[in-house]
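Chain entry —
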Amino acid sequence: MGLPHATPVPPSATTDLHHGGGRDDTRVVPSIDAGGTPHAGVSPPPARHFADPPRSPFMSSGKMKKRSAHQASVDKNGRGLRQFSMKVCENVESKGVTTHNEVANELVAEFADPSGNLVSPDQQQYEDKNIRRRVYDALNVLIAMDIISRDKKEIKWKGLPCTSPNDDQALKVECSTRRNRIEKKAAYLEELVEQYIGLQNLVERNERLYNSEVGPSAGIALPFILAQTHPRATVEVEISEDMQLVHFDFNRFQLIQDIKHL
């Protein structure tokens, strides 16, 4: 049995690799026949390997995952701002006068992990800092609600807000005042509705008169005001030259708006 015959490689199938300025190596690319099968005796090209991009020295996925995991455990255990606010409120109320460090130290000891899962000193330090930060936020919330007061490092208990009998009476007076305002506005709205209906009726009446053969007689334009007095009363009238100002002098008179006659 003879050795398999190797097919010569055409010149176009060779690739020269250059390093710097000279020729260093020649790589043989297999020749493919018409059937798509490489010829025997020809080694396949080496696989290409791409290097990973350089990582930034500021990126530390392990630490970020560790911090997020501990943050999730803190939230999962219910150590939120609401619970810390209640704990801080109870602590300050029981003492009357205290400091931020005293409250924080007691809560750090209270919320320490009893199972001992946090074996790493870094993890324990992170938990302590997280508790102290939440205590600081809770103190600010209680100060904003005027439950406690802070003078430099001293924290004093002022008390929870409560409702006194005077507050109840003030609320009743305010409720009665607003109810009266609503009733007045409702009456005024009813009056406006009546005026609107009267004006609509007047418009329809004038339209009928204009369309009739008789036609409307001379009338008074809206708006106007009627001054009514006794038939035997003495009335003195003075009118300005531009007919814009009229002065009446008589006793026991009554002014009637035009809307009353619609």
Observations:
- The chain has five helices and nine strands.
- The first strand starts at residue 14 and ends at 19.
- The two ends are 130 Å apart (CA to CA).
- Strands lie at 14-19, 22-28, 97-99, 148-151, 154-157, 225-228, 236-239, 246-249, 254-257.
